[in-house]
Each structure stands twice: as C-alpha cells, then as structure tokens.
Amino acid sequence: EIIDGVNGLQKVVLHQHHGSSVEVYLYGGHVTSWKNEHGEELLFMSSKAAFKPPKPIRGGIPICFPQFSNVGSLDLHGFARIRFWSVDNEPPPIPANAINRVFVDLIYKSTEEDLTTWPHSFEYKLRVSLGPGGDLMLTSRVRNTSTDGKPFAFTTAYHTYFSVSDISEIRVEGLETLDYLDNLQKRERFTEQGDALTFESEVDKVYLSTPTKIAILDHEKKRTFVIRKDGLPDVVVWNPWDKKAKSIPDFGDEDYKHMLCVEAAAVEKPITLKPGEEWKGRQELLAVPSSYCSGK
Ligand code: TA6
User: Fold this and answer.
1) Which atom of ligand 1 is the closest one to the Cα of 69?
2) What atom of ligand 1 comes closest to residue 157's alpha carbon?
3) pTM over 0.95
4) Where does the signal sequence lie (predicted)?
C-alpha cells in the first residue's frame, strides 16, 4: 500500500515474509531502500539526500531516462527521476515464475509539458519486485506512444548506488579487458586491463558491450552483489572520491567511502523505438555471501 515517506512524499513498501524489504517512492519511480532478511540496508543513500522536488533523490536507484548524463539536450540524466509516477492500473502480465514475488507496478506517461523539453510521447512502465530469496528486480517497458509517426531514440541507466563497507576494499568482476569511455578524459575510449577493478581515486567510466552478469565483491562484509541484466549492454561505474564529493551539495563529505555506483545502462548505442514499439530492460540484484561468488 502507499504510505507517506520523507517530507510527505508517497512511497510503497514491499515485504517478504523472511524479512527482506524494498521501498520505492512515487517521486521518480525511485527505489530508496533494499534490505536483506537481517534488515541490513544494501543500497547507499546520501546522508544529505534531499527529498525535495524538483531535486533528484541522492542514492538508491535513480531512473535515468530519456537521457543518460549529458549525452543530449536535456538536464543531466533526463527528467523521469524528477517526475511523479503513479501506480499502474493496467500492469503487464505476471510471469508464471513470479508467483512468490511481491511487486508494485508504476507508470509514467509523458505530459504536454514534457513535450516542450523532449518532443516525443512515451509511456514508461516500471515493475519493482522482491523475490522470496530477497533479490530485487526492476523491469522497465518503454513504449513510443507518439501519434506523429515519428520514432525516437533514448539512452538510459539504472543509476544504482550500492552500499559498501570501504570503497578501497571493493573489487568488481566482469568488466576486465572491456573497452570503456572515460568521462574524466573527454569520454575518450580506452581498454580496461585484465584483472578485477579496484578503487583508489575518482572513477566515471562507461563500459561497453558488457556481460549479462557483473559482481561487486565486498571483502569486509563477506558479501557479493550480483547484477544480472537484459536489454542494457553497457555498465557505468562511478565514485566521485573526496574532492568531487565535497562539490556535491547533497553528498556527505565522507559518503564516497561507503558507496559505489554500478549502473546497467544503454549509453553507447541509443535505443530507437518506432511509434507503437516497446523496449524492455531489466536488472536483477542479488546480495550473496562472498564464498558463493569468489570466482567468475
Ligand atoms: O554515474 C555517472 C554520472 O553521470 C557522473 O558523471 C555524475 O554526474 C553522476 O552520474 C551523478 O549525477 P547526478 O546528476 O545524480 O548528480
């Protein structure tokens, strides 16, 4: 059911009987909490997150749509994350294997006002679901509802902020040897070296044509986050580090030590939809004991 969250913004809380939970705000269709069965928070929320529209919420899983970052004419990351979504009364069908999942279906339909900033009509359906084992799945369906016969192209990302014990103890597996665009070096293309990623300074990279599965190993917490994705070929990896963190007003100065953004995305090749066509994208997040996932 819908309840009041911070500053009276409405949210939906999903619970699984063994104790895991998810919270998603109607503002931005924004997941702000994902807890495991022990009540441990798995997503990072800034200590200075402002739940004050039209500012985006700092942390959780911002939906970047219809534009990732500044790769276009819109404000950074587009406008879906700063719009009010509603519960979808005509949700997509529930797959047979989803019987034990709890979920909420949200929808955002472009408005006349949106058309002035982005001249394309669309409908974005977002299903947030929590599995019986505590896995969090986001499924997106974007349809081109234009009546002007025009196709449109968009870029997008699930801008996921993972909570980590200490960024300098984290390894990311699955992106080795891939090409990436480095946002800190004029978005030029480079090739990653051959072993797991580690972090000792600001990083802002878009890895291209990545595998379905990416792992984030938190040695101290003996926990591995696994991202499994469909329809999202790229992965953005971001940590602002100390200097950049200080320049972001809704980011605590020390927060960078306890977060890492690993974002399933479609950036290099925008997704084009003809009128009536629908794109489907999905990410499934798991948090498993590290022993399970020390290898590939
Ligand atoms: O995640 C990569 C990125 O595009 C960074 O360049 C940084 O801008 C970050 O997103 C946060 O953007 P935001 O608009 O949420 O402050």
Assistant:
1) 4
2) 1
3) yes
4) none
